[in-house]
Input
Amino acid sequence: MRKLITGALMALVISLPGQAKAAGDEDEFYERLNTMMRIFDMVRKEYVDEVDDKEVIEAAIQGMLKSLDPHSTYLNPDVYQQVRVQMEGEYGGLGIEVQMENGVVKVVSPIDETPAANAGIQGGDLITHIDGNAVVGKTLTEAVKQMRGPVGAPITITVIREEVPAAFDVEIVREKILVRSVRHRIEDETIGYIRVTTFNMQSGTGVEKAIRKIVEEVGDDLDGVVLDLRNNPGGLLDEAIRISDAFLERGEIVSTRGRRKENNSRWYATTGDMLEGVPVVVLVNAYSASASEIVAGALQDHRRAVLLGDRTFGKGTVQSEIRLGGSGDQAIRLTTARYFTPSGASIQERGIEPDIEVLFPNQRRAKLRREADLQGHITNDQLSQDRAGEYDEPIAEEIAVKKVEPAVAPEGAPEGPPEDIQLLYAIKLLKNMSVLPKEQIAELQQPRSR
Output
């Protein structure tokens, strides 16, 4: 090594010498590193206020990663712990959904069969103190972090309840709480509805259980299933593959391609469609991203489902979580590959077009931010090819449905919460499809040629 470079920041950057050599002259690379350290030293000595070395270095690391694309980032120990909770789908806690209101924590609702519910915590309760420490002045994130902790550890919260004249303390013992990412119900007696809010380690199992319960409850009268991926920001690739596999009999689900060979992979469905060909409609919108788009793309390309709603977000890249050494749990989340649908299309920037466009009233007036609107996003080389017609557009004409204009409420309709017109349209579509012969439905579900 030509020079000895010290400091935590240098330890991170110097571990990638191959990238520096590929960029050009090695001397220039080390000179730039030296410039960065000189600037850091000037900031420490000359800035108007004393700076925190740790914060400055962390900001430099974050800036380096953010300069690559919007999804590469540094996870400090606090953020890393939150990410683990989101991905693993479980944590030691009380089991309450909360929000901040007037400086204190308000309980939206306790989760059934959790320590909070068993202790009598109710929706609308206000939590003013946690283990004797006032909540006022804390952020919601700080308060939630304080309520979470090791399984079996007790915690005392001070509660104000509307019908109770004075505040009172409740001692609760933390237990393992599962983040419920999948919910299901029956719509209109013969339609199964499955909602996936995120792709954590519980999601694949949750969808499989939901399908079994729907089939068991409705039986042969099942006309179809709605898979709702609206507002789902994504999550784990493995769970997206598992959920896609639950609906597919065979074929490729997704492929990834990166600069390194180990990031080039293909995943295929295992034999067995859990619904045995029962029609499926997938609901998507502008906030269906990443893993949601993997599922939607796989089911659309195999013609296993009709996509209904709005064009998806357009995040077609894979981020790998790379843990770092040193004290505390920390990692970087680095974009390492692009993913492609079974037809070979990249969703990056453009998203997935639904087979049937159904928008909520006035939605066209809103400017929806998608991947293509994010500063520094990775571009999609296929877009120019698409304009030349190389890739097929989604097809839905065979089942006599077309893209529709935004629905509007009929004149004189009563005021109140707006109806979920996308869900209502999906139910109507599945009801109409249920009258088709099974052989015709099977023919319509044949995959598109690549």
Q: What stands out?
A: The longest strand covers residues 331-340.
